[in-house]
Amino acid sequence: MEDNSAHPLDSTRREFLRKAVTTATVAGIGASSTGVGAAAENDGRGPLTGDPFTLGVASGDPLPDSVVLWTRLAPDPLAETGGMPDRQVPVQWEIATDEDMDDIVGRGTAKARPEYAHSVHIDVKGLEADTEYYYQFRVGPDRSPVGRTKTAPAEGADVDELRFAFTSCQHYPSGYYTAHDHLADEDLDLAIQLGDYIYEGGSQGSLDRGHEPSREIETLSDYRIRQAQYKTDSNLQNAHAAFPWLVTWDDHEVENNYADATSENNAPTQEFLERRANAYQAYFEHQPLRPSRMPDGPNLPLYRRFTFGDLAEFNVLDTRQYRDDQVDSAEEADDPGRTILGDEQENWLVDGLNDSTSRWNVLAQQVPFAATDENPNPDVRNFGGGDKWDGYRADRERLLDVMAADSDLNPVVITGDVHRNYAYNLKADFSDPDSETVGTEYVCTSLSSFGDGSGITQYGPSLGEPWQRFFNDSRGYVRCTITPEQWQTDYRAVSTVEKSEAAVRTIATFTTDAGDPGANLASDRPARPEQSAVEITEINPDQNGDLNNEFVTVKNTGDAAIDFTGFILSFEAGSQNYTFGDFTLDAGQTVTVRNGSGEDTESTLYADFGGPVLNNSNPDTVLVANDDGIVLAEASYAPV
User: Fold this and answer.
1) Which DSSP string corresponds to 597-621?
2) How far apart (Å, rounded) are the C-alpha atoms in residues 223 and 217?
3) Which of the ends of the chain has fewer CB neighbours closer than 10 A, N or C?
4) Radius of gyration of the chain (CA)
């Protein structure tokens, strides 16, 4: 895509921009204006003390002629009022074509109101399509950092390339935002956040990043403080200031695993809806959303659509606000009346996909769309229930039918939630792994949640997901480059989130060709040939009162010794991991790793997990990975 910042505007075009830029309503809800005179309204600081821009700036929801600019005034961001007086405060804004803010093409004044936590959401209109802009806010003598944004290409315009990244699950106490540090340096047109922007619990972690307040949040003041705490992170601020964002939520912005008006702990409906209203308002106050998205009590219309010329259309979904409650069994999940989207959103989505003329059609949403088979018997499929699309199979089947019906649709689902990277081929019928591939799903890991991952990486199918093409347990984000011919996905992993600085690298690259759905590995698949002789020969999940009865046996079936130093035996498909010390497994020999304590020998090692670890996941599988984290062997077992 052409970088317009590299091409100075001619005088005619510059004059057009100066005259054309206007603004729509501004949340909190105040008048606004354009022209040079507007900036003189609030020359004095008045009673404000301290920097009002501690939460940074952001932009979002780009259209061809419009973009939303956001900030919130909060000199003391973790105070109940943000350190602001109980009155309106005028906020001047400017938008320019250069980073030095010399070529101003629009300015105005917004009223930051206490009832909206002194946040402002400015819908700047009259902008030129596919153009880079810079913006800044001012209150009295205080100026905000300068943010960069970009409008979408015009409807139907020929677009050669679109670059964006997506993230999810950024639990503040679990890790530093090292991924945001690197994300801000990417050359992107857009960033997308797929939910769990904040977490509602009171956890403190071990990194001096404990949640404020240090309890589970429920009130509007609580949610405001928690949202502000996350926003104080300088790496997150830099990423927001670098490009426009599209945001949507999952569950933790309100409460873990809530569904519509049903809380996780079955609180009285009215009580929970009051809590949801508090959470939704605080979310709106801290995100670059249009004023038209302002919540009405416990309702906030978050699903929406964005088109980038003729190249891509993004359907940003909400799979929380309208869903039926989660169920546990496959029989309950098969109920054709169950919904994850709600009828209105589903009809909007289906109509949009059927009417789309874009080359690529994206579903930007929260939870895994591809199925997971929970039955270890390869001849029996059991997709269970839960909060993924497995628990809402009628909705998924209807969308798969839409994908299958149009070979020009090129559907790609981008997903968060599960704190791991995945790539999936979407099947017309998941009960038949040999059925047609009708779409592609790329899943991003958490940005920080769960702390550092194991690094375990699997290429190709897994036992429970034969449509899987990739799995990885690292932290980071996913970067995508779209052209009319191909979609490229780069899985970007940071070396750690448990230290404030980290390196980043691309651990795998996949492509999808237009007209040929499915994920294709485009990077190297690292593994040493002799390691293919590793085999899992026995799994005993029944501890029967003694942890040492819970064990896994691994065999070297080759004719040469294998150095197991640094190898990982994962008792639960990527979690509950035992890492081998200095150990060599000779040809034809076995080693048994027991979940208990004892003295290690040449043939028996002890993991000492301190409690049972098998039977704790679905599907029930065990993995062996080499010292690079590459999966060498996988086996399933029948739970007891």
Assistant:
1) -----SSEEE---SS--TT-SSS-E
2) 6
3) C
4) 26
DSSP-derived letter for residue 57 is: E
pLDDT in tens, 220-244: 999 999 999 999 999 999 999 999 9
Instruction: Find the mean pLDDT for residues 252-261.
Output: 98
Q: SS3 of 237, please?
A: helix
Distance between CA atoms of residues 183 and 160, nearest Å: 22
Model pTM score: 0.93
CA dihedral 187, 189, 190, 191 (to 10 degrees): 0
Q: Take residue 252 and report the two structure tokens written for it.
A: 């933790």
CB 469 within 8 A of CB 519: yes
CB atoms within 10 A of CB 115: 11
In the structure encoding, which two tokens stand for residue 633, read together? 């062997």
Whether the predicted pLDDT of 8 surpasses 50? no
**Structural contact between residues 317 and 369, judged by C-beta atoms closer than 8 angstroms:** no
DSSP string covering 70-127: EEE--SSTTSTTTT--SS-EEEEEEEESSTTS-SEEEEEEEEE-GGGTTEEEEEEESP
Each residue of 474-513: b (16+ CB within 10 Å) or e?
Answer: bbbbbbbbbbeeebebbbbbbbbbbeeebebeebbbbbbe
Nearest to 91 by CA among 47, 38, 132: 38
pLDDT at 381: 83
**Residue 451 pLDDT > 90:** yes
Peptide bond into 619 cis (omega under 30): yes
Q: How far apart are CA 282 and CA 55, in angstroms?
A: 14
Q: Residue 406 has which token pair?
A: 């149009």
Find all residues with CB under 8 Å of 15, minimum gap 6, and list them: none
Closest of 613, 499, 494, 629 to residue 174, by C-alpha: 499
Amino acid identity of 572?
E
pLDDT at 329 exceeding the cut of 50: yes
Q: What is the dihedral of CA 491, 497, 499, 502, to 10 degrees?
A: 10
Six-digit token pair at 503? Answer: 């390196």
For residue 557, count CB atoms less than 10 angstroms from its CB and return exposed for 0-12, middle for 13-18, buried for 19 or more: middle
User: Contact at 8 Å (CB) between 24 and 112?
Assistant: no
Q: Show the tokens assigned to 573.
A: 């498909």
CA–CA distance, 452 with 449 (Å, rounded to integer): 8
Distance of CA 418 to the CA centre of its chain: 9
188 within 8 A of 162, measured Cβ to Cβ: no
What pLDDT is attached to residue 47? 58
Assign 36 a pLDDT band (cuts: 50, 70, 90). Answer: very low
Beta bridge partners of 312: 308, 360
Residue 8 Cα to chain centre, angstroms? 35
Helix, strand, or coil here: 318? coil
Cβ proximity of 154 and 309 under 8 Å: yes
* Amino acid, res. 487: W
What's the token pair of residue 376?
């270890």
* Amino acid identity for residue 410 in this structure: N
In the prediction, which pLDDT does 375 show?
Answer: 76
**pLDDT on residue 23:** 47
Q: Is 169 exposed, middle or buried (0-12, 13-18, 19+ CB in 10 A)?
A: buried
pLDDT tens digits for range 87-101: 999 999 999 999 999
CA distance 445 to 433: 25
